[in-house]
Prior knowledge:
Layout: H1 2-22, H2 36-44, H3 64-76, E1 88-90, E2 93-98, E3 101-103
Antiparallel strand pairs: 1-2, 2-3
Amino acid sequence: MIQSFTSKVRTAVAVVCFLGLSACQSTWDAEPDFGSSVNGAIKSQVRNPNAPVKVPKTAAGLDGPAAKNAVDSYQKSFERKQPVTSGASQSGTMVGTSVGITVQ
């Protein structure tokens, strides 16, 4: 009696598993151009898509000294400049300008 119950439970489990797995889609029909947008974006980011083929050297960008000067001037733009004092001292009072208004 216990064997028949065990075999019935096994059969029921097998049927449930079969029905559960048969509900899963076994085939997948992708669109013909599936992934073409990603592949196109990757290809557009490549500078030379025919990289193994030797290409004549072209001037792309700056030469060495011009690039170094550009980087140096960029770095110098962050240096703090000392303020220029244009006021003069007259008998203990400071005379200077601020936004076009003379202060005495």
